[in-house]
Amino acid sequence: MVDEKVEQFLRDTIIPDLEKGRHNFDAPHTLEVVSWIKKIMAEHPELNLDQDTLIIAAYAHDWGYSGLFEGKDRLNSAEVTSMKPLHMEIGAKKTKDLLKNDIFSFLTDKQKERIVHLVFMHDKIHDLTDTDELVLAEADILSGLDVASLKPTFDHESNVKFMESVARRRIPRFITDFSKKEVERLFKLRLEYYKKNT
User: Fold this and answer.
1) What is the DSSP letter of 152?
2) Which residues contact 148 (CB under 8 A, 6 or more apart)?
3) CATH superfamily, domain at 4-197
4) Structure confidence by residue, pLDDT tens digits, 75-110
5) Residue 183, Cβ density class (10 Å: 0-12 exposed, 13-18 middle, ≥19 buried)
6) Running DSSP on this structure, what letter comes out for residue 110?
7) What pLDDT digit, counting tens, does each position of 116-165 carry?
8) At 34, which helix (H) or strand (E)?
9) Domain map of the chain by residue range?
10) Measuring CA to CA, which residue among 102, 77, 84 is closest to residue 153?
C-alpha cells in the first residue's frame, strides 16, 4: 500500500528532479495533482480505482519534463506542447526504473505496468478511454487551472491558448461529478486572475 513511507520516497526521489523542469511549476504542480487525485478517489469510491497505481502515477506523470527546458524561466504554450510526447516517453522510462526499487515490492507486476502506462498516456487526451486514465487527466488539469494553489506561469497569449484547449479538448472528457464542478469553479477563477494581472 502507498503509505507515508512510500510517499516520502516518491517525494524525495521525484520532486527535487522536477525542480529542473518547468520553472516554478512542475514540482508544485505534481504535489497538487497528487492532492487532486486523492480528492477525486475519496469523492467517487464507486469507481473502485486502484489507489496505489493512481497515486504513484500522479507523482511520476510529469517527471519527464526534468531537464527539458534548462535555463528557461518563462515558456509559452507552443514550447510546452512540443515537448509533451517526449516528456511522456522519458517519464515512463524513469518510472519503470523507479518501480524496480524494493520499496515497491507490495505492487504486482500488473500494477507496475499500469503505472508506467498511465505516465506514458496521460497527455494523449483523445486516446484515453479507461476510467483511471481519465481520472488522472482530470486531476492534472484541475491542478493546471488552480491559480489559488499555484501561480500561473503562462503569459496572457499562452494562457488564452491554454484555456481554449482546456475548454475544447479536456473538459469534455471529464467523467466525475466532483471534477466537473471543480473545473467550472477553477476555470472562472483563472479567467478572473488573468483579467486582473495582465
Assistant:
1) -
2) 189
3) Hypothetical protein af1432 (1.10.3210.10)
4) 777 888 889 999 999 999 999 999 999 999 999 999
5) buried
6) H
7) 999 999 999 999 999 999 999 999 999 999 999 988 888 889 899 999 99
8) helix 26-43
9) 4-197
10) 77
